[in-house]
Design a protein that fits this description.
mainly alpha
Length: 79
């Protein structure tokens, strides 16, 4: 077996994992038929988006109308 380990495109020797990452214990049960985006959206709804859901739907609708393609990393964080 061969290969290399990278983090955001940087080799392991180029960064200090302890300063750039952490582990958070979490035990979630997910629906296997859901895709990644659906799972993230579902998880966000369960973990606190709550009353902001309507606002996020409106933002998504407006982005589509204006043909804005959001950055997937930022979009996942915002939701």
């Amino acid at each position: 077996v061969g290969g290399e380990i990278s983090y955001n495109g940087c080799l392991l020797s180029e960064f200090i994992p302890e300063k750039t990452s952490s582990y958070v214990s979490q035990n979630d049960l997910h629906i296997p038929e859901m895709g990644v985006r659906e799972t993230l959206d579902f998880s966000a709804c369960c973990q606190g988006i709550g009353s902001r859901m309507e606002i996020m739907k409106e933002i998504s609708r407006r982005e589509k109308l204006q043909e804005i393609v959001p950055d997937p990393v930022i979009d996942a964080y915002m939701k």
